[in-house]
Every structure is written in C-alpha cells, then in structure tokens.
Amino acid sequence: MPRSGARTGAIAGLVAGLLAGSAVAAPTVEEGVLEGAPYRISIPDGKVEGLVLWAHGYQIASQGYRGFDRDMGAIVCPIVMERGFACAQSAFSRQGFAIEQGVLETEALRRHYVETHGRPKLTIMAGSHMGGFITYIMMEKYPTVYDGGLASGANNEPKLVHLKERLFDIRLLFDQYFPGLPGSVVDFPLGDQTMQASVAKARELTEGQEERLAAFALAAGFRNTEGLARTVGFYAEVLRELNERAGGNPFSNTNTIYTVGGSAEEEARINAQIPRYTADPAAQAYLREWYTPTGRIERPLLAVNKLIDDVSPVEPTRYYDTLTQIAGTSDLFVQKFFTRTEGPSLVGEEFSLAFDQLLDWIRNGKKPEPGLLAPEGR
After folding, report:
1. Which residues of 168-196 are buried (b: 16+ CB within 10 A; e: fewer)?
2. Are 31 and 7 in contact (CB under 8 A)?
3. What's the chain look like in SS3?
4. Tell me: the pLDDT tens digits for 78-114?
5. I need a surface site. Which of 24, 105, 110, 255 has the fewest CB within 10 A?
6. Pick from 93, 108, 112: nearest CA to 30
7. Alpha carbon 295 to chain centroid distance?
8. 166: Cβ–Cβ under 8 A, 6 or more apart, which residues?
9. Is pLDDT at 307 greater than 60 in this prediction?
C-alpha cells in the first residue's frame, strides 16, 4: 500500500515525563500520507485493547481540512486512549461531501494499522455528522470487519432523500420567497465563492422582512430564523460541490408537491411557479452507490444525536430504524439522544457514556436502552 512522509515518534509528554523522572511513557503518534490522504494514528502506552477509526465531519471543499488538532477527533481520541484503544484518523484526500473518500480511505488506514501494528482485538468505527454517516456506510460495506459503530449527529436518510429535501428544495423555496441569490440549484457561476456570496446576498434579501422570513422558515421546516441566511448559503455551497463531485445534478423534483404551511392559494402558486428539474442518471447512480444506507448490518451500531440540531435535524434519523426493521437487523441498532443544544454533536461526557455503552454491548451483549443518553441509574 503506497505511503509517503510517514514518521513515528513519542509526543512531547514523554520528554517531560522523563525529565521529571517519571517511568510512565506517553502515547506514540504516527503521522503520514496514505494513498493521498494525510493520517494520524495515536497509540496509548501499555496494553492496547483495540482500535477506533474516527471519521471527521463535513469540511468546505474550497477551505480544505482544518487539521487534526482542530477536529473533534482531538476530543475523542484521548477518551478512547484512556480506555486502551489506539485512535486512527484520516484527513481524506478530498474535502466536501466526501463519503466515497471517507469510506475507502478510512478502510485503507485500518488495513495499514493491521499491517504495521498487528490485528487489534476490537475494531470500532466512529464519526460525527458526515463522519457519522460514513460510519453507517462503513458498517454496511464491511459488515464483519468492524466490531461495532458509534455514529453521532448524523442524518441517516439516503441522501437522494435528505439532501434533496434539505438542500435542493429549500434553495428552490428560498428563491420563491426571496429571489436574487446567485445562480440556481444547478448553476453555480461563482464557483468557490458560492457560499460567501450567497450568505451575504441572503442577509441582504431578508433584512427587515420578518413576516416573509417567518413564512419561509415555516415552509422550509426551520424551527426559527436565527442564522438562516448562513444556513441557506452553506446549502448552496454543498449543492455546488455535490454537483461537481457527482458530475451533474442528482435530484429530481418533477413530481414534488410542495407544502408550505400557508393558504391553499399560496401553495398552488408556489407549486405552479417553482422550477422543475430532472436528475442526471449518472449523478443519481453515484448517490445511490455511496450515499444510500440499506440497514444491512451484522455488528452493533449505536447512534447518538442532539435532540435539537439545525445542521443535522434529528427527525429524519428514524429512517435507519425503519431500514433495520425491513432488513431484519433492528436488534443490532440503538438510537439515543441528549438535550444539550449548544456546541458540537458529541463531546466529553456524552462521548464517554456512549462509547462505554457500545463497549459493554460488544463485549458483554448488554444492549443499551434507547432514549436519553445518561449515566446508568440517572
């Protein structure tokens, strides 16, 4: 397996420990590039209980990867290392909605670990937001390789459904209420500047339009209008990058009837005037291959989501439960939630709780109870 730039060494804590006369060694950190993707492997000192592969969340394609030390992996890896697990992270060779790269390059990193350090007793897949969705796909594409999965903050609907309804349709509705954003759902004349320009224009178009803004929020399914302009601009960028990645528009709304929560006359007007698009077959096939979960898993999969999350709403996550029931694998899937509304999707105590429950399920067959994520007995 081609590698370049690999280096292995003890982190600075080892030097500090030795200078202090301590006999306790620090973790070993290996960094390098594997098949075009930078990676980091952190291995705890002492007995290694297993390996956790961590998949990062969405990074804006034009801005590149923000770095391992700024990723949620910087929070997660110390937690799993305290439990004796090595932690491996791929930066992916390409950013944006990089499901294909995330799946293939995380699996390549796992194989590299096995070749270099030996086969671990347990191998666990985990990730947040886009990385959580990657976790679902990994558990399906490699059903016997990973002993368990922990997906946080991830909408698990097929992206032909989720991205169509969350990005494509919302942009179309925004244009009905506030025409004037650059380009369209299939045309992105500003390229890498799409998000910046769209956010600025959306703020300009909605300034002082509180009543109309509330009507759009109702039509689009937003809980409130706070930060809505930035969200619409972000959606425009994801659409642009996804069109580029898939080689065309993967979405069709020829048969969509839009319900906007207004009067019958308003809904009739919207449905009569909204532009209609057909999907590019090759682009649609690409999303079916890499962005469409099936529910066919063979090992425990624990999902944890914020109850209120405007980036990745919790409501559609019920879809995977339905998929596992259809596939006959519902005994291997548990979904839990927590009520904190600020900050990232899973940090600190929450990840520790979820990870320990997954370990107990894998090792001892103790399946977690669905519902609120809380310490035992709380």
Report:
1. bbbbbbbbbbbeebebebeebeeeeebbe
2. yes
3. CCEEEEEEEECHHHHHHHHCCCCCCCCEEEEEEECCEEEEEEECCCCCCEEEEEECCCECHHHCCCCHHHCCHHHHHHHHHHCCEEEEEECCCCCECCHHHHHHHHHHHHHHHHHHHCCCCCEEEEEECHHHHHHHHHHHHCCCCCCEEEEECCCCCCHHHHHHHHHHHHHHHHHHHCCCCCCCCCCCCCHHHHHHHHHHHHHHHHCCCHHHHHHHHHHHCCCCCCCHHHHHHHHHHHHHHHHHHHCCCCCCCCCCCCCCCCCHHHHHHHHHHCCCCCCCHHHHHHHHHHCCCCCCCCCCEEEEEECCCCCCCCHHHHHHHHHHHHHCCHHHEEEEEECCCCCCCCCHHHHHHHHHHHHHHHHHCCCCCCEECCCCCC
4. 999 999 999 999 999 999 999 999 999 999 999 999 9
5. 255
6. 112
7. 17
8. 155, 235, 313
9. yes
pLDDT, tens digit (0-9, with 9 covering 90-100), for 35-78: 899 999 999 998 899 999 999 999 998 888 989 998 889 999 99
The residue extents of the domains of the chain are 3-157+294-372, 159-287
**Structure-block tokens of residue 312:** 């990745």
The answer to whether 252 and 216 have CB atoms below 8 angstroms apart is no
Look up residue 36 and give its two tokens: 């075009």
Give Cβ neighbours of residue 246 (< 8 Å, ≥ 6 apart): 280, 282, 283, 284, 286, 287
pLDDT tens by residue, 25-46: 467 999 999 989 999 999 999 8
| Dihedral pair phi/psi, residue 56, rounded to 5° | -80, 170
Residue 161: HSE in the Cβ half-sphere, 13 Å Cα cutoff? 10
Residues whose CB is less than 8 angstroms from the CB of residue 68 and which lie 6 or more positions away in sequence, other chains included:
40, 74, 89, 91
Distance of CA 214 to the CA centre of its chain: 28
pTM for the predicted model, two decimal places? 0.85
Alpha-carbon dihedral 344, 137, 297, 350, rounded to 10 degrees: -10
Phi-psi region of 371 (alpha: psi -120 to 50; beta: other; left: phi over 0): left
Residue with tokens 């499901």: 99
Q: Smallest Cα–Cα separation from 51: which of 135, 134, 137, 111?
A: 111
Specify the amino acid at residue 222.
Answer: F
